[in-house]
Amino acid sequence: MAKEEIPIGRLALAMAVFLSIGAPVVLYDWWTLDQVLAGIFHPLPMVVAAGLACIFLITAAILGRYIRNLIPPE
User: Fold this and answer.
1) CA angle, corner 41, sides to 38 and 43, nearest 5?
2) Mean pLDDT across 24-41
3) Are 25 and 52 in contact (CB under 8 A)?
4) Residue 67: which H helix or E strand, with range?
5) Which residue, among 18, 59, 22, 37, has the nearest Cα to 46 in the 3D structure?
């Protein structure tokens, strides 16, 4: 029984896409949280941060499904 190998190139590309989307989202959310904790509250950045957090969670779920599909069943 030969084991199928996980395509490392496709996995690396998927991770790079996730990091290119996720890193700015986390940075903006962190900045917004810092502003709120400092006592500066503006509604529009909070709405944008909440929307970006949803996008981050959705892309994380998509990446998880993609990785799960890359692993061959035993």
Assistant:
1) 155
2) 94
3) yes
4) helix 43-70
5) 37
Q: What is the pLDDT of residue 1?
A: 41
pTM value?
0.78
Count, in order, helices (H) and strands (E) of the chain.
2, 0
Which residue matches tokens 């590309």? 13
List, for residues 33-67, the tens digit of each pLDDT value. Answer: 999 999 999 999 999 999 999 999 999 999 999 98
Q: How far apart are the C-alpha atoms of 35 and 39, rounded to whole Å?
A: 7
DSSP for residue 53? H
From the list 55, 70, 67, the residue with the least C-alpha distance to 24 is 55
Query: Maximum distance among all alpha carbons in the chain?
Result: 62
